[in-house]
């Protein structure tokens, strides 16, 4: 069975996903597209030679009987509207982060999905599919380094654009660590505090950069997460888990080592799309495969989107107050329990 996708939003990540569904992955086809930007739609149809209908808005894509699943890749504030409409129509949804612009919006999606009685939504938290994080989780789950005590992680980008604001350090950047870290250690967040080190000369005037987030989990693990979006040297994701019996590191991206003129060097990626390319492929392949095999998506759920949103809200509050802020504690509904772990096989 081919899963027929309607795409809402054909900007940067929308194009990437359209390309991988059309040219790399198996079992999916783009049959409908919409974007508020008509030029973006036309260029994507031309570039990937899509045999897809162009619709004026998200509702008409969702209502199209030819569409089995909706790919929501518009900008964040528009996500809730499209996801809610897709759930009401009983259609599968792959939604890029954030699931909704607010925790209340995510909660409405969770309620709507539970009312439908079936998991329909997967959120694009692709790091759970990255082979490095999967391997790190395997080591932690095996208790090879004992109980995790501390985590140190780093999220650095070469530079940010003029539209990037200090709160986006949370909503656009840290959000990936927020999702993947509690999944890694099977724990929940309890509090967060934010520290602002000396500002880099490479950040524009309005932006606080770098920022350090200290998150504590219910089990007492202390996480130090650095967001530094004008690090000036590349796209660099690091994660080190310090356990009772040892330390485990996220593997470095493999790169050829050259020895030349008295120096040994390896390349550092500068493009985030390349760092997680395999993970993006695997998350969408898993979305299609699990729907085909089990009738529901298998990856990060609406509940995960909601947890990310309430944690992100506390981080944003902590940015403002400078105090340690508590992260709202919520009980996972039975509906989202026993969500199978990711079904894809690492190669
Ligand atoms: P983008 O390049 O700005 O693309 C978004 C596109 O959606 C634009 O063409 C925009 O048109 C259009 N759009 C906005 N509102 C719409 C609506 N209501 N209906 C239809 N189209 C609409 O942004 P992007 O970088 O692709 O990001 C899209 C989403 O993906 C964001 O939520 C972002 O956080 C997420 N994302 C996730 C990752 C990841 O690593 N998982 C990476 C990148 C992005 P205009 O340009 O005219 O506004």
Automatic annotation (TrEMBL):
<comment type="function">
    <text>Involved in the oxidation of myo-inositol (MI) and D-chiro-inositol (DCI) to 2-keto-myo-inositol (2KMI or 2-inosose) and 1-keto-D-chiro-inositol (1KDCI), respectively.</text>
</comment>
<protein>
    <recommendedName>
        <fullName>Inositol 2-dehydrogenase/D-chiro-inositol 3-dehydrogenase</fullName>
        <ecNumber>1.1.1.18</ecNumber>
        <ecNumber>1.1.1.369</ecNumber>
    </recommendedName>
</protein>
<dbReference type="InterPro" id="IPR023794">
    <property type="entry name" value="MI/DCI_dehydrogenase"/>
</dbReference>
<dbReference type="InterPro" id="IPR050424">
    <property type="entry name" value="Gfo-Idh-MocA_inositol_DH"/>
</dbReference>
<dbReference type="InterPro" id="IPR036291">
    <property type="entry name" value="NAD(P)-bd_dom_sf"/>
</dbReference>
<comment type="pathway">
    <text>Polyol metabolism; myo-inositol degradation into acetyl-CoA; acetyl-CoA from myo-inositol: step 1/7.</text>
</comment>
<dbReference type="GO" id="GO:0000166">
    <property type="term" value="F:nucleotide binding"/>
</dbReference>
<comment type="similarity">
    <text>Belongs to the Gfo/Idh/MocA family.</text>
</comment>
<dbReference type="GO" id="GO:0050112">
    <property type="term" value="F:inositol 2-dehydrogenase (NAD+) activity"/>
</dbReference>
<comment type="subunit">
    <text>Homotetramer.</text>
</comment>
<dbReference type="InterPro" id="IPR004104">
    <property type="entry name" value="Gfo/Idh/MocA-like_OxRdtase_C"/>
</dbReference>
<dbReference type="GO" id="GO:0019310">
    <property type="term" value="P:inositol catabolic process"/>
</dbReference>
<feature type="domain" description="Gfo/Idh/MocA-like oxidoreductase N-terminal">
    <location>
        <begin position="3"/>
        <end position="125"/>
    </location>
</feature>
<keyword id="KW-0560">Oxidoreductase</keyword>
<dbReference type="InterPro" id="IPR000683">
    <property type="entry name" value="Gfo/Idh/MocA-like_OxRdtase_N"/>
</dbReference>
<dbReference type="Pfam" id="PF01408">
    <property type="entry name" value="GFO_IDH_MocA"/>
</dbReference>
<feature type="domain" description="Gfo/Idh/MocA-like oxidoreductase C-terminal">
    <location>
        <begin position="137"/>
        <end position="323"/>
    </location>
</feature>
<keyword id="KW-0520">NAD</keyword>
<dbReference type="Pfam" id="PF02894">
    <property type="entry name" value="GFO_IDH_MocA_C"/>
</dbReference>
